[in-house]
Amino acid sequence: MRKKAQFSAFAAFIVLVLLAATGCGRDSGDEAKVHGRLEGVLTVNPAVDSTRDYSGFEVLVIDNTSGDVDTLGMAVTDSAGAFALDVRAPYRGVFPLIVSRNDVMLTLSELVVADGDSGFVRAEFPLRGPGLIVRGSAENGAWMAYRNAKDQHNKVLVDVMKNRDYDQELIARVIRQTSNMMWSLRKTYPNTFGSALAATEAVVMLDGWDDALLVARARELPPDHPNLVEVVRAARRAEARLAGQEAALALVRAFQAKAPDEETWVALQSEIVLAHIDSLEQREALEAAQTLAARAPDSRWAHWSERAIYELENLMPGMPAPGFAATDVEGRTVRLDSLRGRVVLLEYYAPKNPIFQRELGLRNQLFRALEPFPFTVLSISVDPDTLVNEAFLEGRDLPGVHIFAEGGLEGPLARLYNVNLLPTRFLINQSGRIVSKYVGSAMTPLQIQIADLLNLRRTARASASTR
To answer: What pairing do the DSSP bridges indicate for beta strands 57-63 and 93-101?
Structure first.
């Protein structure tokens, strides 16, 4: 029997964030399908406690996917600080690893749970680092390598933006270096959760920087890659820039022909619709949308097809951004048309969305660096659960004006901008017209376009002219 754990709203949301970072392999059923093991020794610095009795550390692995906090494994240390923990999870992924003592949470870390995988931790409290390090586990080694590469990459990109020296060649070099590092994890840690996620980012981060390499790497991924649709979305855009619309469509159809299941096939069909929309091919987009609806008549994709036509008529680049008034979390009325003269990013998300969570660190750092400029983020959560939304914001300094969309994805604010997939972002220029739309992973190309609209590349051009 699984036990229920109790947490404050903020602690529960931290748990939710870690769970959202997985994004693949989930199963809504309650049956544990993945069995892992964690052992370790937890002690206390003698300067803090000289008794050398290390009993009573509670080690907990939990899952919050269903809304409740379910215990996947729990152990308590003996007097020597030793523990052994069997973990039973519903899917392979990253789960919160919590250590507490005397009802006080001491650290919140991450544990990759994969079938047959085992790891070991040794730690002395108070910890000197940010969390526990799981050793002896290929799965957790891959996850740590992925997170380290991502954190360093985000830091460099934000430093460039803060310095107001948006050197395009420097950023391209940083992106390629990080991409190569993440791509190499496929060989260093084959068939691991972390390397699969790293491979996804190694591809999508090249969008607009090295399109040929992006497409080549996308073709190397197997048809059952957990984030295939996200990869194909980026590859489709890159191939269109390299060889035109027909080549891009052929690329998507080649992936579609190898789709491992019906859901992947119809998701890739939506990319074909989007490709025609991007090229302003209304008739072709309509035909592709009708094919999608006929193939999946009783699914969310039929509704998606209807909304695609609305987008062709109202939300294309160059069109005026549809106006609206909404109440933010502070109770203030926000009107889109009152932001004329500023670059506006209209961001639709859900707190538990895996792509949004994966990009959250860079998003926060980037938008905070842009606060001195005429730039505003309208961040709209479409999660219908008010408690989830409130927990997401509680105690967090998140850049942007925050709005909870009434009715979620079916509410008027989401329907006005035809939001079906998350995250969806619209970039709106100083004149109130739509510049571009980004669906899914897009922080890097979005960063470039924001820099252009705010003229942040002037320093780089001026310095180059003086050499």
So the answer is: antiparallel
Sheet holding 424-428, edge to edge: 401-404, 375-381, 343-349, 424-428, 434-439
* Cβ-based neighbours of 204, under 8 Å, separated by 6 or more: 214, 230, 231, 233, 234, 440, 441
DSSP characters over 241-287: HHH-HHHHHHHHHHHHHT-SSHHHHHHHHHHHHHHHHHTT-HHHHHH
pLDDT at 161: 67
List C-alpha distances in Å: 319 to 184, 191, 195, 279.
42, 45, 41, 15
Instruction: Please give the backbone phi and psi of residue 320, each rounded to the nearest 5 degrees, phi first.
Output: -60, 135
Structure tokens given for 285: 């987009």
- CA 399 to CA 379: how far, in whole Å? 9
What pTM does this model have? 0.69
To 10 degrees, the CA torsion angle through 325, 328, 333, 335? -40
- Which regions of the chain are under pLDDT 70? 1-32, 65-68, 161-166, 457-467
pLDDT given at position 6: 41
As a whole number of angstroms, the distance between CA 206 and CA 235 comes to: 9
**Structural domains in the chain, sorted by start:** 9-136 (2.60.40.1120), 317-467 (3.40.30.10)
**Helix ranges, 21-167 (H):** 138-162
Alpha-carbon Rg for the chain in angstroms:
23
Q: Which residues contact 422 (CB under 8 A, 6 or more apart)?
A: 348, 349, 350, 353, 355, 356, 382
Q: Could you tell me which residues are beta bridge partners of residue 436? A: 427
pLDDT tens column, 355-364: 888 888 889 8
